Amino acid sequence: MKKIHLITGASSGMGMEFVRQLKGSVNDEEFWLIARRKEKMEALLRQEGLRGRAFGLDLTQTESFQEIKQALALEDVRIITLVNAAGYGKIGDFKDISEKDALGMVDLNCRALLAITKLSLPYLVRGSVIYQFASVAAFLPQPYFAVYAAGKAFVLSFSRALNQELKRYGIQVVAICPNPVETEFFQRAGVEKEVNLIKKIGMEPKEKVVATAIKRAKRGKDISISHYTAKTIYLISRLLPHGFVLRMEEKFLRSKV
Ligand SMILES: NC(=O)c1ccc[n+]([C@@H]2O[C@H](COP(=O)([O-])OP(=O)(O)OC[C@H]3O[C@@H](n4cnc5c(N)ncnc54)[C@H](OP(=O)(O)O)[C@@H]3O)[C@@H](O)[C@H]2O)c1
């Protein structure tokens, strides 16, 4: 029986960091990595001296889910860790964001996360952990990051509810809500002016995001927020009327985007 860590978005950023930090967490482990750039994941497996497989797949395409499903069905596997890190965000006025990008964000950040979680369920065992990448953007609707923030709210809500459902099977779900993190994410997010705006809320290192999430899982928590700004925004989202916060956000952001 193979014990595997199944990680999407493992060719870069926080998915890749998860590979490094999970290394050695169980005996006889294998890493099954999914992203479009297969060569980056193969190089990672080689560099880290890990056993496993790299799947070069576009997770916005339904056929990709089928391929993972088949690979899992062909072997005797248990999924010890599932990390859904594949994701991207486009900043800007909704009317200016292409239809491809608007739908693409939903397809990758929500639909693929849901599909990979669903197809993994039969292979999860007591003690397995699912890490889902939400964001600080999940806490409030966000003008000029509207689709991304709405998608991450979906991830947060879905993950916390699923954690409650899976508790009785000894399976844990942790929703990770990072502040901005310096990864390739910002190469895709928008132009420099827009990106700098998001970065202004405070950057945090990917190593800390991942280490905190692993610690939170060990403590049985369903949400991981590692930066004080994100914790403050979480509190604001609970305390202040959203209508008021939205007006403030929009006023501030309109002058910048
Ligand atoms: N960085 C931040 O500021 C930040 C803050 C909060 C939350 N997050 C969330 O954290 C997660 C990880 O982001 P990151 O910062 O590590 O970003 P990143 O460095 O850009 O990594 C994103 C990963 O997603 C993969 N990916 C993108 N499009 C894909 C597709 N169509 N099919 C399959 N894989 C795809 C990329 O691989 P390929 O290009 O090889 O496909 C890459 O491995 C995301 O869900 C993001 O929304 C990020």
Summarize the structure in words.
49% of the residues lie in helices and 17% in strands. The chain has a 7-stranded parallel β-sheet with strand order 3-2-1-4-5-6-7, sandwiched between helices. The chain contains 10 helices and 7 strands. The protein is globular, with a radius of gyration of 18 Å. Helix 3 (62-73) runs parallel beside helix 4 (99-120). The chain has one domain (2-254): Rossmann fold (3-Layer(aba) Sandwich), CATH 3.40.50.720. The chain is of the alpha/beta class and 257 residues long. The chain has helices spanning 13-22, 38-48, 62-73, 99-120, 146-166, 185-189, 192-199, 206-218, 228-239, 242-254, and strands spanning 2-8, 29-35, 52-56, 77-84, 124-133, 172-176, 223-224. Helix 5 (146-166) links the parallel strand 5 (124-133) and strand 6 (172-176). The longest helix is centred in the middle third of the chain and has 22 residues, at 99-120. NADP nicotinamide-adenine-dinucleotide phosphate binds at residues 9-15, 35-37, 58-60, 85-89, 108-109, 133, 135, 178, 180-181, 183-185.
The number of domains: 1
- CATH topology-level name: Rossmann fold
Based on helices, strands and strand pairing, what is the structural class?
Answer: alpha/beta
Q: Segments where pLDDT lies below 50 for 5+ residues?
A: none
What is the makeup of the main sheet? 7 strands, parallel
Give the beta-strand count: 7
N-to-C span: 52 Å
CATH superfamily: NAD(P)-binding Rossmann-like Domain
Helices and strands, in N-to-C order?
A: EHEHEHEHEHEHHHEHH
Main β-sheet, spatial strand arrangement: 3-2-1-4-5-6-7
What is the average of the pLDDT values? 94
Oligomer: single chain
The kinds of small molecule bound in this structure are: NADP nicotinamide-adenine-dinucleotide phosphate
Number of helices: 10
Q: Rough shape?
A: globular
Under CATH at level 1, the class stands as Alpha Beta
The helical percent reads 40-55%
